[in-house]
Amino acid sequence: SKKSSPAASPSSHGGFPEEFAWTKPGAEYGAVVGPIHEQSSSCASCWAFVTADSIAATYAVDITKKTRKRMDAPKLSILQLMDCDKDDNACATGNMYTSFNWIEKNGGIALASDYDAAVPSSSQDDETLQCAANVKSTLTTPGMCDLKMTAGNEALMRAIYETGPVAVGINGERLHFYDGGVITAKECPPAGAGISSINHAALVVGWGVENGMKYWLVRNTYGEDFGEKGYFKLERAEPHDHGLFGTCGLLFESVYPIVTKVGVVMDKKEMEAKCVEGSVFKQEYFRDETANPGTLLGNEPASRGAIEAADAFIETALGGAVTIAKREGVAGAALIGATVAAAVAVVVVRRRKASANAAFGEAE
């Protein structure tokens, strides 16, 4: 089969290779993706792992292309995002878009070796953790490239091939039964509920063909025993098979960061140039849950009845803070399982008050 290393734009050699993955990118690259992570079963933290890994991989690819020297992806602190990122909700869901924003607004993200050594516990779901201040940050994300859903498979392939792995939100319910092979569009449609069906974060690292079926290779955060050594495959279906959304909603919410060292200033034109065709540059992400991506990831599966009932309570009680509180309600329902709406609402309100004074990290 036709394989290639992304030393140049696909247009320079007649198109994309039939198979490509950043797990084996070619001799001129280092380890662009590291070992598979395993999130705690009681902690909806997929968003934090995917945020950190996408930044690290993008940086490694960019520096290798610029310097022509092999570079491994740096190990960035997932704990820092869990402890400090107040735009997201630690073990109670989050999102890459908002996390990229938080990193830029708050001075960057630290290496794991620097931040993790400064906190008393290395457990991602330790409820006593506080944000460690004055830890040196290394990389920052002054912007992001949001893939246009209407641009389809080719735009995602181009972004992966030219910039590195791409962070996506998917409907993750089918993953609970996955033990290998390609999940088809028929098996995993976007669930027909729009943005509310996107509930898990993952990292698309490449593509290939298996038994005649085109697929995306996706890195998960369920440990190496999951699926195919920690990875899974989603059918790279055509638009008529899945509408505009992609298998499991893959194309609905896909983004990759613009990454620099802390202290390096990029102007808007430089940042826009980082976004390949089919992507839209965004310097800041404004959530609009009625129209835009950026849902709360990590709540798969959830009790819809409990969530919807909690929404009504939250909207009345918290007014303008609906977006944040809503996400906490979703996570509460996901982690408890099937629960009553009143219980979810109580948990949400309690967590909302606590988050004003402490890092938000509770898992019910």
From TrEMBL:
InterPro entries: Papain-like_cys_pep_sf, Peptidase_C1A, Peptidase_C1A_C, Peptidase_C1A_papain-like
Top-level division of the source organism's lineage: Eukaryota
CDD domains: Peptidase_C1A (cd02248)
Stretches assigned to the Peptidase C1A papain C-terminal domain: 16-258
An annotated GO BP: proteolysis
GO MF, any single term: cysteine-type peptidase activity
Protein keywords: Membrane, Transmembrane, Transmembrane helix
One family name in Pfam for this protein: Peptidase_C1
Transmembrane segments: 330-349
Family, per entry: Belongs to the peptidase C1 family.
PANTHER family: CYSTEINE PROTEASE FAMILY C1-RELATED
Annotated protein name in UniProt: Peptidase C1A papain C-terminal domain-containing protein
Species annotation: Micromonas pusilla
